[in-house]
Amino acid sequence: MEIQVDNRQNHYTIDYKDVQKKARTILEAIECPQAELSILIVTDDEMAKLNQTYLNRSGPTNVIAFPMREGPFADVNPNLLGDVVICPHRADIEAREAGITPEIRFNQLLIHGILHLFGFDHEKRPEKAEIMRAKEEKLLSLLQSENSLNDDKIVKSPQTDDTVKSPGCKARVLS
User: Fold this and answer.
1) Which end of the chain is more exposed for a tag (fewer CB within 10 A), N or C?
2) Domain that holds residue 18
3) pLDDT digits (tens, 9 = 90+) for 60-76
């Protein structure tokens, strides 16, 4: 399992090993131990540029996922999930608004981004939003517990006609 963390901002302190450990815990819970993932931590300005360029939306957002398992390069490396880009400033603002710690909000965004890499969606497929939210809550509980992993693997996509099995992963992935 290879997890790269690239911190492109200097306002918030990022513990690389902690971010890697959390991502590893999430991927192991999803039963995808061979996965490769890149996590980028960016400024508001960089996030706004990515949001405009790739999603045609103005302003910064909290997290964007760039899946590598779809499109013309999907077969290059089936274990390469893609990139999760997180804006810690947005996470900090949202944490204060929600009355939670910035770390909890960061964890929520990390989980959210990784689930998007597996095809979970809450915008294009509203009927799947509740499924995604429930998985996010279970994974957040997992990260917050002192037990780093639970014997019953908690994140699996429901059996549907549009699920595909990913090489190297036992988890089913929504397309």
Assistant:
1) C
2) 2-174
3) 999 999 988 776 767 77
Q: Which helix (H) or strand (E) holds 129?
A: helix 129-144
Sequence-ordered list of residues with C-beta below 8 angstroms from that of 77, at least 6 positions apart, any chain? 36, 68
Residue type, 83: D
Q: How many Cα atoms are found within 13 Å in the side-chain-facing hemisphere of 70?
A: 13
- CA 97 from chain center: how many Å? 21
Q: Each residue of 6-47: pLDDT tens digit?
A: 999 999 999 999 999 999 999 999 888 788 999 999 999 999
Tell me how far apart the alpha carbons of residues 26 and 111 are, in angstroms, rounded to a whole number.
Answer: 7
The residues that bridge with 38 in the sheet, in sequence order, are: 4, 83
Distances (CA, A) of 3 to 11, 55, 116, 155: 22, 25, 16, 19
* pTM score of the predicted model: 0.81
- Identify whether the C-beta of residue 35 lies closer than 8 Å to the C-beta of residue 1: yes
Number of domain units in the chain = 1
- CATH code of the domain covering residue 116: 3.40.390.30
